[in-house]
Amino acid sequence: MSTPETIAVAMSGGVDSSTVAAMLKAEGYTLVGLTLQLWNQRRLAGMPGMPESTEGRCCSLDDVYDARRVAEQLDIPYYVINQQERFEQEVIRPFVGEYLSGRTPVPCTLCNNHLKFDQLLITARQIGAERIATGHYARNQYDPARNRWILKRPADASKDQTYFLFGLTQEQLSRTLFPLGNYTKPEVRAMAGEHHLALAQKPDSQEICFVPGGDYKRFLDAYLAEQNDTLPDTSGEVVTTDGTVIGHHEGIHNFTVGQRKGLGVASGTPLYVIEINGAERKVVVGGNEALASKTLRAHRLNWISISGLEAPLRVQIKIRHRHEPAWATLAPSGKDDEILATFDEPQRAVTPGQAAVFYVGDEVVGGGWIR
Q1: What confidence tier does 212 reach under pLDDT thresholds 50, 70, 90?
Q2: Residue 11's CB: how many other CB atoms inside 10 A?
Q3: What DSSP assignment string belongs to 222-287?
Q4: Could you tell me which CATH number the domain at 291-370 has?
Q5: If both were cysteines, with which of 135, 161, 194, 298 could 356 make a disulfide (CB 3.0 to 4.6 Å apart)?
Q6: Whole-model pTM above 0.85?
Q7: Which of the following is catalytic: 58, 59, 108, 111?
Q8: Which CATH number applies to 6-135+179-214?
């Protein structure tokens, strides 16, 4: 009789990953639970503008406690892997740098691409597991005709997390299980109840683990102060699309493309941030119609369903997690590791620093970072 395969389960302390562990345990797999400790939630607590409480945020200490409790209930080994230093170097510092350069980063995608899957697979192998399982809502399968692993949208479109997973490599996809890909969230909660998991009705975390209340400026101020660093002077002019100076701003990190409130200028008609010129420290504003873009350029590309872009390709593109995918044509831009996308219809607030993810049907073709 063969020994059951050992699978490492990425346990975040939420209902999704806990249900994955219970499902695989019931199917007879030998499991090991792993949690990445990425950020000390108490580190900036109580600093000026920062809250004391970390309740409700992803990857909090309460989540680690909940993950350990589920592992004990399922009687599986459980380990916490401290990756705080690496998280700070590969996610926090680039996040801060992007904002100070006038771009708007996606830290959850950075974390998946550069840290979570890489470290989980390294640790899994060290403990004798060739594969990991996560609670992400996505599907993957091997296509022998293309000799490639394919990433696909899940059955529950409202929980689709493929936007955050576009950076996964072929090796990572080949060694990852997404057991929830064919289920809806209500079905997952029902399964958690059937397995008598105490956190079956635990609410989903809604915030980025290190940014309380979604207030990036407060985090930047507190983090730089903790580092005994001062916020660099990125103040400059607020200008219209024709270059007319209409005001002054205190720093480009206070703005993102599409922003309407807090511009610090008066106008008879609504104004929006159209562009942030980091080199000249200018914030360009204009009417809503000026937010529409027919093209985008993306670089630092990762291809999944194809090995690369040799000729123009029709795709749908998501430029934000909640963005409705829009039809476009991808084409080589003439520069290495960059594509030019031309939309059928102009898209609102194409934002440098965000991810652009390309789809054909349910398949993720690949993605990159908007220039």
Answers
A1: confident
A2: 32
A3: HHHHHTT-PPP---EEEEETT--EEEEES-GGG--TT--TT-----SS--EEEEEETTTTEEEEE-
A4: 2.40.30.10
A5: 298
A6: yes
A7: 111
A8: 3.40.50.620
